[in-house]
Amino acid sequence: MSTASTRSPAPVKRSFTAEASEYVNDRTGLAIAIKGLGRKAFPDHWSFLLGEVALFSFIVILVSGTFLTFFFQASMAEVHYDGSYVPLKGVEMSVAMASTLDISFDIRGGLFVRQMHHWAALLFVAAIGLHMLRVFFTGAFRKPREINWVFGFTLFVLALGEGFTGYSLPDDLLSGNGLRIIDGLVKGIPLIGTWTSFLLFGGEFPGTVIVGRLYALHILLLPALLVALIGIHVVYVFIHKHTQFAGPGREPTNSVGPPILPIYAAKAGGFMFIIWGVISLIAALFTINPIWNYGPYDPSPVSAGTQPDWYIGFADGALRLIPPGWEFVLFDRTWSFNILVPLVVIGIFLLLVVAYPFIEAWVKGDTREHHIADRPRNAPTRTAIGAAGVTFYAALWAAASSDILATHFSLTMEGVIYALQAITVLGPFIAYFITKRVCIALQKKDREVVLHGYESGRIVKLPGGEFIEVHQPLDEYDRWRLVSYESYQPLMLRPNARGKITIGQRVRASLSRWFFEDRIAPVTQGELEASHSAHH
Amino acid sequence: MAQDDHSGAELAAADSSHAAPEFAGSTGTAVVPYDAFENPGFEPHRPRVTDQDPRREKRAQRTVYTLFYLSVLGSVWAVAAYMLFPMESNNVDAVRLNNMFIGFGATLALLGIGFGAVHWGKSLMTSAESIDTRHPISTSEATQRGAVEVFRQADEESGFSRRTVIRNSLIGALLAFPLPAVVLFRGFAPQDELPVELLSHTMWKKGTRLALDPSGVAIKASDVTIGSAFHVIPEGLTDLEHGKLEEKAKAAVLLMRLEPDELNQTPERESWSYEGIVAYSKICTHVGCPVALYEQHTHHLLCPCHQSQFDVANHCKVIFGPAKRPLPQLPIAVDDEGYLIAQSDFTEPVGPSFWERN
After folding, report:
1. Which cellular compartments is it found in (chain A) (predicted)?
2. Which of A134, A428, A437, B11 would disulfide-bridge A388, Cβ 3.0–4.6 Å?
3. What pLDDT, on the 0 to 100 scale, is given for residue A8?
4. What are the φ and ψ backbone dihedral angles of B345, each rounded to 5 degrees?
């Protein structure tokens, strides 16, 4: 007896979909996944799309990149170019460069795919960065999502690695200079630098192997890691269920939004095609990385005003901001602090980014799960720290264009560098204080609106001749959006069970004081009633 | 009552009454007010215009299928553009047209699907929201204890903690076995070469003529007029069979002629120049970019990568930017035929600093 006949008393006519899904399910048991996930609620907010932008642009990168591998040849053997691009005919260049030119000039649609690949890569890193900022500023890294933050951070680093290795493949003048800078950086690392560079380049810079090695990383190792980690990252989004902003009916214990099938699928699937379409439009209209203008790599020429891809800018900028003379000979060895300091500072910065969720959790001592996204203003210190970090990053990033800034705005090269040095050091503090005050002011405004209503724009003249603007009380739904958050208070130092105050506790208490000594509590029912009775 | 009382080591759990009990955990220093507002529950559902007005619904439906048909049109157009805009004419404009029109077709194909699907989802699909219940991410206590028990049992049965000699020898073996794989990476660079050795020498030697980059034509001292700057390579570099770029990456030189009285030369280097003609390594001492920009009035060299500036009049010492060391000077002279030649190799390694340098 067949399973089908035992299971259902054979309806007269069964749809193809029903038959097909039963066929598949009898062999895979996948129905459990559809039933479990198909109607899952997916909370809606524009900022939740940033991670999707990253995911969708990554798909473009995978597909377009695969197409490119069919034509690109990662060899540094010297050839005389014999393709369609007349100005470079007969010029000696590597096979890598020549095959990249062939993709651009001799394969129909090849330039389009190449430009999609490059633009999508730029968008990929940008979307990851913005997505991280969204997660940071809404506190979506709190328990239980700390580990997924680490996965996401690792993805960001891998994306930078993919970007840089890909940028270096065409072996043109710009990418060669980029590699030259990497070579110089690596050589500046104490103890292991010289040998590391020597092994990386297979001998002296530039050597004849680096493109092939970077290619293996670019199309094999890094993508494998990326795909695996993206998989884990997204699976955990499902397991944790997405965060949601506070709103009527939204509780820490539920997740509210359109069901995956059909509305979310239509919107997110449609959004995927829109992202692809936008990348396609940019690739159709805007040239990216015109290697034919730069020519093949040669260690001698370089053009002024060259820029790395945007996401490498902050590292390049950090190198530029070091004042003269930060290199010493000690113990008969060369210590290149002009290279070490940028490396270490950027390393510490990245370490703080990845460690932040754990630091905040430790300071708060809060071990509950958090599924309601914070409004940035309701976590003033965190938001201010984020603003300081963004300012620091932005200053380094701007420094990568110091020469362009100087020429475009007719400033001196030195003046721009001095200003950016000042911004790198002082800017984060200024941004911190301004942001924190703005957040607290916004919180106060929220309290004001809850307690006394919003300005209705209606001016009324009282019998006594006085003009007032009528304040309209909020309805309970809008009020809930403004009051449903928690504030934290500074930790009080107390001796532990053995009567001691540990150093850890002191640090924690002072961090806690820093985080929470200025706090604005949400309006409570009692306060609202009190304010009403005061009015009447 | 906001609570003010926290113990130092272990934080007292705040009254987490209104949070769901299954999410209980320590609230830490969170303040949970006792008379917080209650969640008012969901707002009443507001129908969309397409739910109420059949004509708007019809129109939305038309919009959606029009977008999908436009997408088909885009795909067809992209295929047609592939054929209609060939680029085998060695003409850059043809490449541009090919790129643009294939791209426009693909864009229309993708955006048609995208906007169509989103519009369908937003205006026509039933808009009720799903509500899922969240469960704590952690498993039940029993499962967790079960997992711990599995480890304990495995430990007991294997004797992993008990038989310490076996365990430690295993750890030792596990630490040692990747070492051969690490050593294999030595093969990343040639066995018979040492980096410090290579970095310390360039192609320049006594008598090598200075030649123009990239033509390789030797330069006569009389060709170098005051104020001019030449990009220079050693003569013979262009004829190298192997390692041309590696040699050039070390040997590239900038040649400049200043008024001799503008040069502030140290006594020991006075013989390194010739009638105001000086030659300096072109490879930046910061991270190795070519220092290619020469400002004639100020005699300053600028590295375009990180803006280090070097003063040619003062032995190329650093006057701005992250570089520390002056550009190494190539001692030059003139041979019998009037060509500029090197007196020797550079007297120090050129290019970026490295650990063993000095």
Report:
1. Cell membrane
2. A428
3. 53
4. -70, 175
Residue A71 forms contact with B (CB below 8 Å):
no
Q: What is the pLDDT of residues A30-87, one digit of tens each?
A: 889 888 888 889 999 999 999 999 999 999 999 999 999 999 999 999 999 999 999 9
Residue bearing tokens 């910061």: B286
* Average pLDDT over every residue of B314-332: 94
Q: A-B interface: how many C-beta pairs under 8 angstroms?
A: 425
Interatomic CA distance for residues B327 and B317, integer angstroms: 7
Do A379 and A272 fall within a single domain?
A: no
* Contact: A320, B307; criterion CB under 8 Å: yes
| Cβ atoms A255, A33 nearer than 8 A | no
Which residue in A41, A197, A491 is closest to B6 by CB distance? A491
How many structural domains is chain A composed of? 3
Q: Are residues A19 and A54 in the same domain?
A: no
- For residue A70, what are the contacts with CB-CB under 8 A and spacing of at least 6? none
Is residue A309 one of the residues assigned to a domain? no
Residue A481 at interface with chain B, using a CB cutoff of 8 Å: no
Question: How close A10 gets to chain B, by Cα (Å)?
Answer: 31
Relative orientation angle of helices A413-452 and A380-399, to the nearest 10 degrees: 160
Query: CA torsion sign, A26 to A28 to A32 to A38?
Result: negative
Same domain, A379 and A289: no
Q: Is A256 left (phi over 0), alpha (psi -120 to 50) or beta?
A: beta
CATH code of the domain in which A159 resides: 1.20.810.10
Distance separating alpha carbons of residues A315 and A356, to the nearest angstrom: 21
**Domain assignment of residue A355, yes or no:** no
Digit-coded pLDDT (tens) for A318-343: 999 999 889 988 888 999 999 999 99
Decide if A368 contacts B24 (C-beta within 8 A).
Answer: yes
Residues A144 and A99 in one domain: yes
> Strand (E) positions, A7-165?
78-80, 92-94
**Whether A31 and A107 share a structural domain:** no
Residues A222, A275, single domain; the answer is: yes
Is residue B18 within 8 Å of residue A486, measured between CB atoms?
no
Contact yes or no for B326/B317 (Cβ under 8 A)? yes
Contact flag B19-A368 (C-beta cutoff 8 Å) = yes
Q: Are residues A379 and A271 in the same domain?
A: no
Assign A327 to helix, strand or coil: coil
Assigned domain for A521 exists? yes
Q: Please, which residues bridge with residue B279 across strands?
A: B255, B330
Kindly give, in sequence order, each residue whose CB lies less than 8 Å from that of residue A452, ignoring residues fewer than 6 positions away.
A471, A531, A535
Closest approach of B287 to chain A, Cα-based (Å)? 4
CB B216, CB B196: distance < 8 Å: no
Whether the CB of A57 is below 8 Å from some CB of chain B: the reply is no
What number of other Cβ atoms are within 10 A of residue A216's Cβ?
12
Structure tokens at B243: 């390692």
- Give the pair of three-digit tokens for residue A113: 């795919």
Chain B residues within 8 A of A241 when measuring between CB atoms:
132, 134
Q: What is the DSSP letter of B11?
A: P
pLDDT tens, position by position, A79-105: 999 999 999 999 999 999 999 999 999
| Structural domain for A16, as ranges | 3-37
- Which residues in chain B have their CB less than 8 angstroms from residue A367's CB? 25-26, 28
Confidence label for B160 from pLDDT (cuts 50, 70 and 90):
very high
Q: What is the pTM of this model?
A: 0.92
Nearest CA among A240, A258, A243, A226 for reference residue A57: A226
Residue A171 maps to a domain:
yes
pLDDT of residue B88: 82
Return the residue matching tokens 């100087």.
Answer: A406
* CA of B167 vs chain A CAs: smallest distance (Å): 30
Helix and strand element counts for chain A (H, E): 21, 10
Q: Which two tokens stand for residue A117?
A: 């690949």
The answer to whether B245 contacts A501, with C-beta atoms less than 8 Å apart, is no
